[in-house]
Write a structure and sequence with these properties.
Keywords: Hydrolase
Protein name: Alpha/beta hydrolase
CATH superfamily: Alpha/Beta hydrolase fold, catalytic domain
Domain AB hydrolase-1: 22-242
GO molecular function, one term: hydrolase activity
Helix content: 40-55%
Shape: globular
CATH topology: Rossmann fold
Low-confidence stretches: none
Mean pLDDT: 95
GO cellular component, one term: membrane
Largest sheet: 8 strands, mixed
Radius of gyration: 17 Å
């Protein structure tokens, strides 16, 4: 497994394919494998796909102290091998936006999936705070809460709860949720110059689709797409999200 040095320690990432770079950033409680392993084969014919694990996920350790977007964006930027396209999902969308704003020389095209600009309403705050509380105190309820807010009702009914309940919260999840609650990228957005696609999910109960629409509105010139999916569109609609990514990065 390739690694990249960073001030916080060693950053682990996966690399597959050939061609120009495509860096894909995972979301809260996920990692490179759980979020993207099933999507990577659909992209490696056109891109060298880099999927990093940031602090507290996969094999990348958490250095302690404050977990910040600065830290995670720095870790992700360290894995770039050349100027690349950049995809971010959920918390990864905020991380990707920060990289694009502060390291524009690295980012050719940007895709932000199921993202948000800041803690704009009480529903978003309630959902994230409940998720954090369950992660800290009640692993069984945490495992049940994930499918309830992460997927659409139809998908849960089709797949079944046993296949979706994660059990113990993955390492780093609680600190990442606490960072979700502090995310505010409004000042960064005007600095993003890369062509950008924002993707919202109409059945998203964790980050309601209105937040993706607001993110798009705050990025003049960005393109926007919606999928009929819950929050974890990477698993619920893998073919559709792969097609959107491929179409956009191909220009």
């Amino acid at each position: 497994m390739p690694t990249a040095p960073h001030d916080s320690g060693t950053v682990h990432y996966h690399r597959a394919g050939s061609g120009p770079g495509l860096v894909m950033v995972h979301g809260t409680g996920g990692d490179a494998v759980s979020n993207y392993a099933h999507l990577v084969p659909g992209l490696t014919d056109i891109r060298t796909v880099i999927t990093p694990d940031y602090a507290g996920s996969g094999q990348t350790s958490d250095p302690g102290g404050d977990l910040t977007l600065d830290l995670l964006a720095g870790q992700v930027a360290a894995t770039f091998e050349e100027p690349s396209d950049l995809v971010g999902f959920s918390l990864g969308a905020a991380v990707a936006a920060k990289v694009a704003a502060e390291r524009p020389e690295l980012v050719r095209r940007l895709v932000l999936i199921a993202g948000w600009t800041h803690l704009a309403d009480s529903r978003l705050e309630l959902g994230l705070r409940t998720w954090a509380r369950l992660a800290a105190t009640d692993p069984e309820s945490f495992a049940a809460y994930g499918p309830l807010v992460g997927f659409s009702p139809a998908y849960v009914s089709t797949v079944g709860t046993a296949a979706l309940m994660a059990g113990e919260p993955p390492r780093g999840t609680l600190r990442q949720i606490e960072l979700d609650l502090r995310v505010d990228i409004r000042d960064l957005l005007p600095r993003i110059t890369a062509p950008t696609l924002v993707v919202g999910n109409t059945l998203d109960h964790l980050i309601p689709v209105e937040h993706a629409r607001a993110l798009h509105a705050a990025l003049p010139g960005s393109r926007y797409a919606e999928l009929e999916s819950g929050h974890v569109v990477l698993h619920e609609r893998p073919a559709e999200i792969t097609a959107l990514i491929r179409g956009f990065i191909a220009g």
